[in-house]
Design brief:
alpha/beta, 12 helices, single chain, elongated, 49% helix, 2 domains
């Protein structure tokens, strides 16, 4: 697991954050899911082996990012749910299939658990053969599994949102027989400014920072207007640094930081670095110009001396210009440059 996956999974694993994202997505910010009602589940799902000599001989283990069970009162009824989060640091073009597999494995696990429970209790007596063979009795019910994809990057999600999108052009009659599977997505780029207030935890600051991480001016406005950025914790800073390269520094003995001050410090260091680079570039350019001037002056001196020597031979030895240049081993280039100055 890479750094981005590690910090985002750890962050989303917190009950308050986990409950907040589902309250936002399902209930529009209404506080229906109580963080204290969430219970951590094993994130490992197992594929059963399939046959054939080239088939898999051992079960394949797949690991979700975060999955929790929920018992809550909804519409005056007790609701039992399984909620899962897949934290994404990039667009996954097969996300519908990935989530479909996870959810199907979870439903399969529920069926297997039901069958095992009936076997242990011995309550198959009196049931019909179909119930006994399937292991799942008529009164048994599955718990809904809701998987939410949470994006930790600034770009728009441009991957498929459903299984049908991945199938391409198909006969409508065939497509009608293929169950669709759609993903539930929370992407910062798609969240309207007015909707960030529906979050009740640091998700508000983390996702809004990510959304505007490529627009320094707008990001500065967002940070200045939100008090929450003055008290951002280490887990949040780790996510921002890993996922969008925020480069926010935190003192080792502190568990929170003022992002406003951190950003100002970053700007100051960036300005100093830019000034130093500009000064170094100006000095290098000046040195280059000086060297060029010195080269031109030296070339003029050389050509002047060469011309003087040629004229001396012509005058004192009575040689022609060509013979004088031959005796001095003058290059073809120098001959062309000097010729106009020899009378």
């Amino acid at each position: 697991m890479g750094l981005k996956d590690t910090v985002t999974t750890k962050y989303m694993g917190q009950n308050r954050i986990f409950a907040d994202v589902f309250n936002y997505y399902i209930y529009g910010g209404e506080q229906v899911i109580d963080p204290d009602s969430l219970e951590e589940l094993d994130t490992r799902e197992v594929d059963v082996p399939y046959g054939g000599k080239d088939g898999v001989k051992q079960p394949i283990q797949r690991t979700r990012d975060v999955i929790k069970s929920l018992v809550a009162m909804m519409d005056r009824r007790t609701a039992y749910l399984l909620l899962a989060v897949e934290a994404q640091s990039h667009v996954h073009n097969a996300m519908p299939v990935k989530n479909m597999v996870y959810d199907a494995l979870q439903y399969a696990k529920q069926v297997a658990n039901a069958a095992a429970s009936h076997k242990r209790s011995g309550d198959y007596k009196g049931t019909d053969g179909d119930e006994y063979l399937s292991g799942f009795m008529k009164q048994d019910r599955l718990l809904p599994v809701v998987t939410l994809v949470v994006c930790f990057f600034a770009k728009e999600w441009d991957g498929p949102m459903s299984l049908h999108e991945m199938l391409g052009e198909q006969d409508a009659r065939i497509l009608a027989l293929v169950p669709d599977y759609k993903i539930n997505l929370v992407a910062p780029a798609s969240i309207k400014d007015g909707d960030f207030g529906k979050f009740r935890t640091s998700l508000k600051e983390v996702l809004s920072f990510i959304k505007y991480s490529q627009d320094a001016d707008r990001l500065g406005e967002v940070i200045a207007a939100d008090e929450g950025f003055r008290y951002l914790g280490r887990a949040e800073v780790d996510v921002l640094n890993a996922c969008v390269g925020a480069n926010i520094e935190m003192e080792k003995d502190k568990e929170e930081t003022n992002v406003c001050l951190a950003i100002e410090e970053m700007k100051r260091r960036a300005a100093e670095k830019a000034a130093a680079e500009a000064a170094a570039e100006a000095a290098a350019e000046a040195a280059k110009e000086t060297a060029e001037k010195e080269r031109i002056a030296a070339e003029k001196d050389r050509m002047s001396t060469l011309l003087k020597n040629i004229k001396n031979l012509m005058e004192k030895a009575g040689w022609s210009a060509e013979h004088s240049m031959d005796m001095l081993d003058v290059s073809e280039g120098d001959r062309k440059a000097i010729q106009p100055y020899i009378s």
